[in-house]
Amino acid sequence: MQNLTRFFLISLLLAAGLATENATALQSNTRQAATRPADLAIIPAQALPREVLDTLAIIKKGGPFAYSKDGTTFSNREHALPRQGRGYYREYTVKTPGARNRGAQRIIAGAPGEYYYTDDHYVTFKRIKE
């Protein structure tokens, strides 16, 4: 009877979203599976929204950047981009029309000419082809 009660309680906690450790692990696994470096889609630059192209132009000019996090190291914890040494990737915010915060769009820059775009806050990436 005690095992049945424990099972019921755990089920309730999971359903209510209170078992954060399990939920976080599941979310992390889902994020890692969403994009793998070898599976990165390529998106032509001309297919990107205007605000992405504007941000790309600012990156190439070296600024000025709108957010203090722009130009900081992107650590690639999700391992969604090709593995590189620490400090290789830099992240930049793409201003999202109507967003009251930084929004979910980012450009990640590697070597000169190496740019990646995410519109879902690092869940998936596309390599920008200029």
Chart the SSEs and their pairings.
Elements: H1 2-16, H2 20-34, E1 41-44, H3 50-61, E2 72-73, E3 90-93, E4 106-109, E5 115-118, E6 126-129
**Could you say which overall geometry the principal axes of the C-alpha atoms support?**
globular
Q: Report the CATH superfamily.
A: Microbial ribonucleases
Estimated structural class: alpha+beta
Q: Output the CATH class name.
A: Alpha Beta
- Structural domain count: 1
Low-pLDDT stretches are 18-33
Average residue pLDDT: 81
The assigned CATH architecture is Roll
Largest sheet geometry: 6 strands, mixed
Radius of gyration: 19 Å
- The count of β-strands is 6
Whole-Å distance between the termini?
64 Å
Per CATH, what is the topology?
A: Nuclear Transport Factor 2, Chain: A
**Biggest β-sheet: strands ordered side by side in the sheet:** 1-6-5-4-3-2
Written account of the structure:
The protein has 130 residues and is an alpha+beta fold. The chain has one domain: Nuclear Transport Factor 2, Chain: A (Roll). The protein contains three helices and six strands, in the order ααβαβββββ. It has helices spanning 2-16, 20-34, 50-61, and strands at 41-44, 72-73, 90-93, 106-109, 115-118, 126-129. Strands 1-6-5-4-3-2 form a six-stranded mixed beta sheet, covered by helices on one side. Strand 4 and strand 5 (115-118) form a beta hairpin. The longest helix has 15 residues, at 2-16. The radius of gyration is 19 Å and the shape is globular. The protein starts with a helix and ends with a strand. Residues 18-33 have low confidence and may be disordered.
